[in-house]
């Protein structure tokens, strides 16, 4: 995933020091960078001013076969795709979904949305279900997300959700 930590920021990027650098990689290179606090600093996530949002981990499109998954956020996407072995793309916040993403997902037999266990996740699932007839929503328990469920239940939890759909 080519993650890094900002230790020596470029001039003007001092706000990102000691943050996890998350590159948005495509076959043509890096199209965006997001920065995540590794402690309890606020804001939790920062982006480069003026940058447009993209789907995270678009490389999953090239390794997915009949299904692909969507996560809220980069860390959940990394957990599902890299640790659990389930092809996943991520949206950097539910408000960053773009209508043309639907076309990217329409050819898959199934699309799984692993929705965070909060109101935003539930609403995201409802709105996405209107756009994607091949969508299966997997709601995380209240207050949980992919990463927290992985830490308590492991890979089998997600494999079972995929297999039972």
Tell me what you see in this structure.
- Strand 7 (110-115), helix 4 (119-131) and strand 8 form a beta-alpha-beta unit.
- The protein is α/β, with parallel strands linked by helices and 165 residues long.
- 30% of the residues lie in helices and 26% in strands.
- The chain folds into 2 domains: 4-47, no CATH class; 60-163, 3-Layer(aba) Sandwich (Dna Topoisomerase Vi A Subunit, Chain: A, domain 2).
- The longest helix has 13 residues, at 119-131.
Question: How would you summarize what this structure contains?
Answer:
The chain is an alpha/beta fold and 165 residues long.
SSE blueprint and pairings:
Blueprint: E1 4-5, E2 19-26, E3 29-37, E4 45-47, H1 60-63, E5 67-72, H2 74-83, E6 88-91, H3 101-105, E7 110-115, H4 119-131, E8 135-139, H5 146-153, H6 155-163
Strand order of the largest sheet: 1-2-3-4
Question: What would you say the CATH architecture of the largest domain is?
Answer: 3-Layer(aba) Sandwich
How much of the residues is beta strand, in percent?
Answer: 25-35%
Number of strands: 8
Helix content: 25-40%
Order of helices and strands: EEEEHEHEHEHEHH
- Indicate the multimeric state: single chain
CATH class of the largest domain: Alpha Beta
Radius of gyration: 16 Å
Alpha-beta content class: alpha/beta
Total domains:
2
The profile of the biggest β sheet is: 4 strands, antiparallel
């Amino acid at each position: 995933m080519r993650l890094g930590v900002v230790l020596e920021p470029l001039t003007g990027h001092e706000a990102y020091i000691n943050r996890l650098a998350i590159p948005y990689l495509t076959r043509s290179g890096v199209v965006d960078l997001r920065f995540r606090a590794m402690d309890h600093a606020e804001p939790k996530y920062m982006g480069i001013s003026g940058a447009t949002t993209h789907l995270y981990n678009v490389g999953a499109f090239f390794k997915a076969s009949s299904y692909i998954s969507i996560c809220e956020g980069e860390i959940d996407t990394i957990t599902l795709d890299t640790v659990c072995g389930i092809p996943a793309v991520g949206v950097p916040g539910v408000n960053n979904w773009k209508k043309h993403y639907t076309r990217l997902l329409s050819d898959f037999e199934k699309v799984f949305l692993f929705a965070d266990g909060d109101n935003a996740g539930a609403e995201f699932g409802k709105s996405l279900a209107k756009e994607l007839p091949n969508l299966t929503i997997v709601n995380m328990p209240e207050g949980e997300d992919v990463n927290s469920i992985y830490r308590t239940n492991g890979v089998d939890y997600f494999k079972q959700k995929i297999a039972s759909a």
